[in-house]
Amino acid sequence: MTLLLAAQLHSRDGTPYTALYISTEAQLQTNRLSQILETHPKLADLPSHQKPGLARIQSTHIHDLEAQEHILRFQVPVAIQRFNVGLIIIDSIAANYRAEFEKGGKPSHSLAKRSAQVAQLGTHLRDLARTHNIAIVVANQVADRFESQYQSPAPLSQPQTQSQKTPATASTSTTTPALNPPTLSPPEIYFSTPHLLALDHQQRFFTGWGDDPNPHPNDTLKTPSLGLTWTNQLATRIALLRSPVYEDRPYQSGEDKAVASWKRTMKIVFSAWSGEGETGYEIWTGGVRGVGDAEDKGDGGKVT
C-alpha cells in the first residue's frame, strides 16, 4: 500500500503516475491507505499539490482464473495508456491458481497445465513492463515445506572368512567366504540431502526460506507457491520472513513457550539490479519502516 502512494511521486512528461492495484483475495483497504497518507513522515509533510491521493489509484478485483486472464491481457494494457500507470501490483498471483487447480482431477495433468499458464503469464507481464517502462510488483503466497528424509549409505563390513582344514593328511589350508551375510552398520537419518544438484538443496538459494544455518526447532519451513516455473519468470524476489520471539522466563516441564513478539525480516533473495541484503522491519500506522536487530530495541529500536 505504501508503494501505491509512493509511485505517485514520480511523473512521465510532467504528469504524475497513477498506480493500478489488482486483488484476487481481499478488496483494497482504502482506510489503511488514508492512514498511511496522514502519518507517513515523508508523505504527510508534502505540499498539497505534490501529495499523493486515492484518486490516482485504480483498483479491480479478480474472482477467478478466467477473469484474471482476460483483465491482464486486454484491459490492463488499455488502462496503462489511459491512466498513465507507472506501477501495477497484483495481490496475490497464486490465489486463483490454487483455487482452480486444487479442485481435483489428475495431479500430473493439472500441474502441467498450471505450469504452462504460469509461464505464459510471466512472459506477458515482462512484456508489459518492458513495453510501457513500468514496474510490476507481484505478491505470492507460501506453503508449508517438509524436509525430505534420507538414510545415509550404510558401509559394509569386511566379509568374514574361516579357515577350513583339508583332511589330516594334507598340510595346506584354504579360506572360503562365510555363509553369514555381511553386517550393516546402523543407518543415520538426516533431514536434508547431500546431493548438491537436488531440489531440496538448491531451492533455499532461490526461495529465501530454509537457508538459516541455526533454525529454531519450532520454526515452520515455508516455500513460495507456484514453484520453480514462476521463479524463473522473476527479475527480483523479496522474501518477508517472520519468526517468533519467546518470553524469557523459566518454563515448567511440558509447558509450551509463549510468544512475546514477532521479528520481521525483509530479504533480497535474488535481483537483476541489486545485491543480496537483509534488514529488520516493522509495520506501523505510517506503513513499513526498517528497524535494527532485536538487541537494539531496548529503547524503541533503530529506525532507518
SSE order and pairing:
Layout (H helix, E strand, L loop, with lengths): L1 H5 L4 E2 L2 E2 L1 E6 L6 H10 L1 H4 L12 E5 L3 H19 L1 E7 L3 H7 L5 H26 L2 E5 L2 E3 L5 E2 L9 E5 L7 E5 L11 E2 L8 H4 L1 H4 L14 E3 L2 H5 L4 E11 L12 E13 L5 E8 L2 E5 L13
Parallel strand pairs: 3-4, 3-5, 5-6
Antiparallel strand pairs: 1-2, 7-12, 8-11, 9-10, 13-14, 14-15, 15-16
Distance between the termini: 19 Å
Largest sheet: 4 strands, parallel
Strand content: 25-35%
Which architecture of the domain at 1-141 would the CATH scheme give at its second level? 3-Layer(aba) Sandwich
Task: Decide which structural class fits the backbone.
Answer: alpha+beta
Describe this structure in words.
The chain has 9 helices and 16 strands. With about 300 residues, the chain is of the alpha+beta class. The chain has a domain of about 140 residues: P-loop containing nucleotide triphosphate hydrolases (Rossmann fold, 3-Layer(aba) Sandwich), CATH 3.40.50.300. The strands form 6 sheets. Strands 4-3-5-6 form a 4-stranded parallel sheet. A 4-stranded antiparallel sheet has the order 13-14-15-16.
Task: For the structure shown, list the relevant keywords.
304 residues, four-stranded parallel β-sheet, alpha+beta, disordered C terminus, 28% strand, 9 helices, globular, Rossmann fold, 28% helix, four-stranded antiparallel β-sheet
Provide a concise account of the structure shown.
This protein has 304 residues and is of the alpha+beta class. It contains 9 helices and 16 strands. It has a domain of 141 residues: P-loop containing nucleotide triphosphate hydrolases (Rossmann fold).
